[in-house]
């Protein structure tokens, strides 16, 4: 009773406002220390997230940072210059050394748990493999262009056509994306090497991590009769990309490429007609037959729905590469990482090139075999070819639900080839 009496006397002498403020300050102080305690418990994972751009360091870590650096440093176009190769290899070595120092720092800061030790060991092994691969010869660098960590898988998407439509430009732009891994050379598995088996085909593919897409491109698949059935038997849910352009321009580009290798071949006009006087087009000539897109697409639609096909306009890929790339990335279920900031227009070649990475000395463009100036073709030949292709184009528009507006291109001006 004496205690309660003294307490009541004390509280009666202390103003209630002061007592309230004192109690409030104690509550705020307690809350502050509670939050600090939570922060300390989360501090190390936050540091890891900063180092690895938002991904925790566990056994399942995909090591996005290093992957993106490798792509930006070395995943350029197939036709590297000597300076490009030297710069790419040097840059990758520097990044690998920096990543190694990062791993050592994490080892010293992390608590000695089994998972952290396993993650650091896994990451170190990956770095050593990447360093070894990018220390190889120039030819090996051009062929592989990717490190061998992860798992080799059959493609989930294939660029199946068409020749001289812009497939190389599309593939190289896609390879900038960190979630796309694609073999640089054309495997020609479903048209020339099918007897070698799926294991042989899988071994050609680059290794991928979880969430990455394996891709390849072989434009001749589109016009190969047995390719649709073979691809369907491998993966019926595969995604197919077809790059198409005005069939007349495509045919001239095809001829231009052949002419550069065989200057002795007849003129375009001679090859295009069975009878020039009667105006009979020789549709058996491969340069012209490829452009009958509706005929070839019919074979593919027997095995695959249109929902698994995406058609890229070769013309728009030149004038608006970012716009076409946005559609392709959406089709593949990828985040839109490759945007207009990655391209610039090369006036000399006449098509877009990838802008140089911040750590590279020169921009990367398709090589000398791309962007050849087309020979001058007689205007009457151009007009006759447009007339020949028009009904097939109309059928193709109906089949795909897209109007590529090739009928608006009725001039005979020389154009630059992009593929």
From TrEMBL:
Q: Where in the cell is it found?
A: Endomembrane system; Golgi apparatus membrane
Give the disulfide map.
353-365
Q: Give GO cellular component annotations, separated by semicolons.
A: Golgi membrane
Binding annotation for 3'-phosphoadenylyl sulfate: 164-168, 245, 253, 370-374
Keywords, in A-Z order? Disulfide bond, Glycoprotein, Golgi apparatus, Membrane, Signal-anchor, Transferase, Transmembrane, Transmembrane helix
Gene3D superfamilies per UniProt: P-loop containing nucleotide triphosphate hydrolases (3.40.50.300)
How is the protein disposed in the membrane? Single-pass type II membrane protein
| Keyword Transmembrane on entry | yes
Q: Which residues form the Sulfotransferase domain?
A: 155-390
Enzyme group, top EC level?
transferase
| GO terms for MF | [heparan sulfate]-glucosamine 3-sulfotransferase activity
Q: Where is the active site?
A: 164 (for sulfotransferase activity)
Q: Which Pfam families does the record associate with it?
A: Sulfotransfer_1
Q: What is its EC number?
A: 2.8.2.-
Q: Which InterPro entries match?
A: NST/OST, P-loop_NTPase, Sulfotransferase_dom
Similarity-based family:
Belongs to the sulfotransferase 1 family.
Q: What is this protein called?
A: Sulfotransferase
From which organism does this entry originate? Seriola lalandi dorsalis
């Amino acid at each position: 009773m004496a205690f309660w009496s003294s307490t009541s006397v004390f509280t009666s002498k202390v103003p209630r406002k002061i007592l309230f403020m004192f109690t409030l300050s104690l509550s705020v102080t307690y809350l502050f220390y509670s939050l600090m305690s939570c922060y300390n418990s989360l501090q190390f994972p936050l540091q890891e997230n900063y180092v690895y751009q938002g991904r925790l360091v566990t056994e399942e870590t995909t090591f996005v940072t290093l992957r993106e650096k490798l792509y930006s440093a070395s995943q350029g176009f197939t036709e590297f210059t000597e300076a490009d190769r030297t710069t790419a290899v040097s840059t990758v070595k520097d990044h690998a050394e920096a990543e190694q120092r990062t791993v050592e720092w994490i080892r010293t800061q992390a608590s000695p748990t089994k998972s952290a030790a396993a993650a650091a060991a896994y990451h170190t092994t990956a770095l050593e493999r990447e360093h070894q691969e990018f220390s190889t010869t120039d030819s090996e660098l051009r062929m592989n262009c990717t490190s061998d960590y992860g798992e080799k898988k059959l493609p989930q998407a294939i660029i199946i056509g068409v020749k001289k439509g812009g497939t190389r430009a599309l593939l190289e732009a896609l390879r900038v994306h960190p979630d796309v891994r694609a073999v640089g050379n054309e495997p020609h598995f479903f048209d020339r090497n099918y007897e070698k088996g799926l294991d042989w085909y899988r071994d050609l593919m680059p290794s991928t991590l979880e969430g990455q897409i394996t891709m390849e491109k072989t434009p001749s698949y589109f016009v190969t009769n047995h390719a649709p059935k073979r691809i369907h038997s491998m993966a019926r849910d595969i995604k197919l990309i077809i790059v198409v352009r005005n069939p007349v321009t495509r045919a001239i580009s095809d001829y231009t490429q052949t002419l550069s290798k065989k200057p002795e071949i007849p003129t375009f006009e001679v090859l295009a007609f069975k009878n020039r006087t009667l105006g009979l087009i020789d549709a058996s000539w491969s340069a012209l037959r490829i452009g009958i897109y509706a005929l070839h697409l019919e074979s593919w639609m027997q095995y695959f729905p249109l929902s698994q096909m995406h058609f890229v306009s070769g013309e728009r890929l030149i004038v608006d590469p970012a716009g076409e790339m946005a559609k392709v990335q959406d089709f593949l279920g990828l985040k839109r990482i490759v945007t207009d900031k990655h391209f610039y227009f090369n006036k000399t070649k006449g098509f877009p090139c990838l802008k140089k990475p911040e750590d590279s000395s020169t921009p990367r463009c398709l090589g000398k075999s791309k962007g050849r100036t087309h020979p001058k073709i007689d205007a009457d030949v151009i007009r006759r070819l447009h007339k020949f292709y028009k009904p097939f184009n109309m059928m193709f528009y109906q089949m795909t639900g897209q109007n590529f507006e090739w009928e608006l291109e009725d001039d005979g001006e020389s154009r630059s080839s992009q593929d």
